[in-house]
Amino acid sequence: MTNPFAPPIDLSHLPNYRQADARPRRAVFLGRVSTKDRQLPASSIPRQVVLASERLDLGEEFIAHFWDVESGMLPAHLRGLGPQEMYDGLGVPTPRDGGLQDLVDRAEQMGITHVLAERSDRVARAMLTSLTVEHELERLGAEVIYANEPTGGTESGRLRTRRYGQAEAEIYRATMIEMSMGGQFQHAIGGWNHGYPPYPYVAVVDEDAPVRGQGRFGEMRPKKKLVSHPDERRFDAARELCRLRREEHLRAAGIITILESEPDRYPIEGRWTHTRVEGLIANPKLSGYQVYNRKSSRTGRAGFSRRNPISQWVWSPNVVHKPVISLEEWMQAQEVTAGLRAGVEDGPLLRIRTAASRLGLTVTAVSSNATHTLYRIGNRQIALPTPVPDTLVQQVIEDMGSAA
User: Fold this and answer.
1) From 3.40.50.2300, 3.90.1750.20, 3.20.20.190, 3.40.720.10, which CATH number describes the 201-205+230-341 domain?
2) Strands 114-117 and 27-33
């Protein structure tokens, strides 16, 4: 910014006229493309480099290039984890010295003074992530500059422009997700399948579905519906599997034993497993309805999904494919499953709660991970395995009694 209150005569020849920067200017490029399939990194990244280069000084060049092919909603520590072979196969002419997290990790070591990007959403679409990255780089002595921001003016004006751009990027992302999810909901309501067809179905192209024209990246995927597998024994196997849970209250191990005892009657690729059995029993598509949004993949952890509550599932209004069981039978199976799990997981804990109640204490779960849960019992805290083994129950009860 030019000082509007300059001295009345030219003093620029004096040694302390300008603040001396002991570090030489070292600028790097930062870029991002969301996907390699729906976008063209080979053209997008070089275009971003050209635009960011406009903020270089005369004769200056980038000392390194950091770019990712990742969603802009991923936090910095999950960016750039793709294998180098994937990046090599993209055919991007721009060299790659790492991704966003690599830049943050190496900024101080490399003596980076400026990070140049096309615009803020190339850092991240999530405003918190882009702000965090900016502040961390500034702490390390690197200024973040976006090519689409005006030069000159006041600092407050520059900051206002930047924050508006960051907010707009996150709002745009939310809007696109809403539109995308709305389309997926209508897809399920129309009776079309998402994902791999569950046993005992196969997915076939619906010839009566609306024909979509060719998109930017070639022909759109056809809509598919579920139909029965040609081997009718599979339908009988799925029906028997659900009956064993619903009527005989068998756990997965018992069901697997019965199914594997007659392989010709209950065919399966590979072997019946605990995950497959429990997954089929829990799958509402076996009731003939199309169901979507049972899981959420946007958990902030790459490769991890979480189950959504049934209240958030999207159901087709009518039966759209041949049902294995009725919806009422599916519901009964879920009730039995819940009871079986309560018997395994909550039986020992129920004894601890009962003993604590007799002592006037309450048992509250504080936090948990995949293997243990931290409980508060009165004014004490204790970590117990999940589920609680019977061998520990009496010890916990005795400890409560002695403490009281």
Assistant:
1) 3.90.1750.20
2) parallel
